[in-house]
Fold this protein.
Amino acid sequence: MSDLSPISKYVECAGWEIHYLEWGSPSLPPVIAWHGLARVGHDFDVLARELSSKFRIIAPDTIGRGLSSWSTNGDADYCFDVYGQIVNDFCNKLGISQLAWIGTSMGGAFGIWLAGSIFRDRISHLVINDIGPEMPQEAMDRIVKYVGSPPEFKTITELERYLRVIYAPFGYIPGDEWRKFTEYSARRVSNGNITTHYDPKIVNQFVVHKNDWLIWDYYDAIISDTLLLRGEYSDLLSREMAEAMTTRGPKCELVECKGCGHAPALNVPVQTDCILEFLTK
């Protein structure tokens, strides 16, 4: 494993300032790692260190999250069409023509959308972490409830306790990782309290842009080599849907991650090793 820490960078893409982290030499094959709905690029810290001796890992913050720009018109801007414009400009400005894609949850659905449309000939390997081309309504309702109304706390310690509860399905996360996870998930608001580091309006993608979550046609159009990870107890990706994904479209390879739900944290060898093996075959 490389001890390389990420370099924090910024670039303007399609009119937005995008913050991203980068590990590994620019001469290595590029891998873009895209986080989940309410998360940030730092979620890939462990996986990126494991991969960075063989790949250039690039993990952006989506607009409305972390240190990237936030929208003043979230109903229009928080959707795959806009993210696609950003990624296209992002890759062109970084000189990336061909790439591998690792996407967790929303980042996996976005990867399906890209690999089945505007990046169909550019994504060689696609890793989808615990999401499918269709979203169960019960899961959507749960996400809208907790993402759309983030609570405020007086201290970082209180925020960490909250995050440990709502992200418990991620599986095994050591104590020191929880502290880092909390620190890059936090922002202060005007009254001095602490809340999560995203724009609550990102949840409107489930209301205004519901078609972003029904993308079987995109999945069936994928020609990339595809690996699907599923958390054993996932409520976003049923075993039946995961198995259906192995029989149509790119006919993905399926790996079930034991002892976790939605979504595997990609921070233990059984998960990181299978991704490394997939990307290097």
